[in-house]
Amino acid sequence: MTVSRTDTDIVIAGGGLAGATLALALSRRLPALRVTVVEAFPLAPDALPDSYQPSYDARSTALAWGSRQIFGDLGLWGRLSEHATPIRHIHVSDRGRFGAARLHADDHGQPALGYVADNRWMGLCLMRELLDSGVHWQAPAAVTDMQNLPGGIRVALEAAGESRSLTAQCLVVADGGRSGLKEKLGFRTRRQDYSQNALIANVSTSRSHQFTAFERFTDHGPMALLPHGSPQRPGNTSALVWTLRDAELESLLALDESGRCQRLQERFGWRLGRFTRMGECSHYPLALSIVDEPVRPGVALVGNAAHSLHPVAGQGFNLALRGLMTLVGQFEWACTQDIPLGDLRVLGRYQAGHRSDWQQTAGFSDSLVQLFGQSFPALAVARDAGLAGLDMLPGAKRWFARKAMGLGGRRP
Hints:
By secondary structure, the protein is α+β, with helices and mostly antiparallel strands. The chain has a single domain (10-191, 287-404), classed as FAD/NAD(P)-binding domain, CATH 3.50.50. It is built from eleven helices and 21 strands. The protein has helices at residues 17-29, 65-73, 77-80, 119-131, 181-184, 246-253, 257-268, 316-337, 344-372, 377-392, 394-404; strands at 10-13, 35-38, 60-64, 84-87, 89-94, 100-104, 114-118, 136-138, 142-149, 152-159, 162-168, 170-173, 190-205, 212-218, 221-228, 237-244, 275-278, 282-290, 295-296, 299-301, 307-308. The strands form four sheets. Strands 5, 6, 13, 14, 15, 16, 17, 18 and 21 form a nine-stranded mixed sheet that branches. A hairpin with a 2-residue loop joins β14 and β15. The radius of gyration is 22 Å and the shape is globular. It starts with 9 loop residues before the first strand and ends in an 8-residue tail after the last helix.
């Protein structure tokens, strides 16, 4: 449904992975809608490279099998899979204890449990597809405010020091959790600080990863190593996500590369042999951040703007992707019912449809942090027994595999 009185139908604040994916999904499923993406960084279509050369220090995202299905439905997976490393095995262990659980894609009749893709490659794939769509871009620009109007909204923009506005049916905030826009619009965030930081880097090891993702719980916090590199040949590069307390992070960053590899060796162990290289490190503080009511008339929050999780389970972007598709489904329903896209009946259905998914996923991630973050001996024994039981009980293993593959909830 298109309302001619407005300049556009949907304004998406933020053109990162979440915002660009939403724009692509809308162009595929509802091509008659007018979609405008407002992005703070410049967009130069002529500057997009013809080919992609992976960088050692490229940051990456874990894509669950369910996300691979969504990208397949959007016609993006054929291009994206060219540089997406499969996760064929998952090994979960508790450092210094006997308990461990192992998942294998073959046991579940799948070619992979998930994938690891460079963020830059995903962005390039999305941009290539969007260039051929009818999506309009305002970049560089930023959404600064929103006002409800009869039958729609007015979105305030700022670009190159000048202010202007757009009228639309609905604003979707997809600019992450740190822009300040959601707070300016009056959304209240519930935050639980984990007093930890995530250190992100790519590392090389003397042994091949054999397409295995390692989840290692230690007395100082969890760490993950995800296979990175060629989709066809198992390599020696992994993407590291390492949770550290403030003092530990400061101490690690003060070391040279050799010292950092040695510290990582002490915490992770020798399952991948010797750590031989650690690339450029980035880090950010960790918290569970939830907006319990992510919709209001005319506006909806998605992705990290609505919820950000601890990276222990690697489900943040996968949860966001499922939420995006739930929202697109409700926009489809609104068009069939001739209801304005920003109507609370539409956005309320999105909130209701996505709520159980984010509650379960956030609860699952938080429970892992709480369970494996305690060093009490009795609890450690119970954790080991649980991991051993998970490895031996088919029903429990199937449940855990579905969680890891992003299939724990209803697929939009």
